[in-house]
Automatic annotation (TrEMBL):
It comes from the Eukaryota. This is Vacuolar protein sorting-associated protein 8 homolog. One of its GO terms (biological process) is endosomal vesicle fusion. One of its GO terms (cellular component) is HOPS complex. PANTHER family: VACUOLAR PROTEIN SORTING VPS41 (PTHR12616), VACUOLAR PROTEIN SORTING-ASSOCIATED PROTEIN 8 HOMOLOG (PTHR12616:SF8).
Amino acid sequence: MIKAKDMLHEDSVVEMARAAEFYKVCSVLHEERGEHSLLLKCLLLDNTRKSRVFDFIAESSHKASLEHFIVQNIQHFVDVDGVKAGVTVQSYFPHVFTEALSSLPERAKFAFLQGGMKVGNLPTDSVTKYIQLCCQYEPDKVLSLVRSRNDFKITPVLESVRQYQLEEAEAMLLEKSGDFQGAFDILFRRLQGAIQSSGNIEAATESVVALGQAAGDKLNAQTTWLPLLQCLH
């Protein structure tokens, strides 16, 4: 079919190859014509080669000509591999990461953001969204994220941790926002629950004591340390 392009109009050959789902033929023709985004489209459509789309983008010397197609078809790239899609966009097209993210459904957003987080330097809103989605999809990660990071908005994340009842993360966020009494109340309630259920009393106690030490004189001893000592007596 490629030889036939010498006798037929090239556009006709491309249409024939596409109609027959001869995507390798289409790829060769698009490459010869410098149609890089159409070549990328052929890879996406070819079930035997679609996994190569991210390597193709990484190795391409014509990335600027691929940007619009990638953003407009980001769902198809996420369908291939959401994390790799996020890595690719944040690595080579970071200025359109937010635009690409906005068009995705929630579950796809999470995979895409996981990839973006691997690369780093995401905008505050994207980090915030990632932590919010972790509350739903990977709640075990949330406490370490809110403890170690400061590049997110506390208020929306606080709403999410409350929605999914992640009390330790909620206490950490309250502490970060300066509400030491609110944080103490949560951790103290957790300690009481651990005592009643014979849970991990040591860990719960350490959390409350660490908060008290961090708060210093910002906590009222009568409403914090005294009840704590009475609880542990």
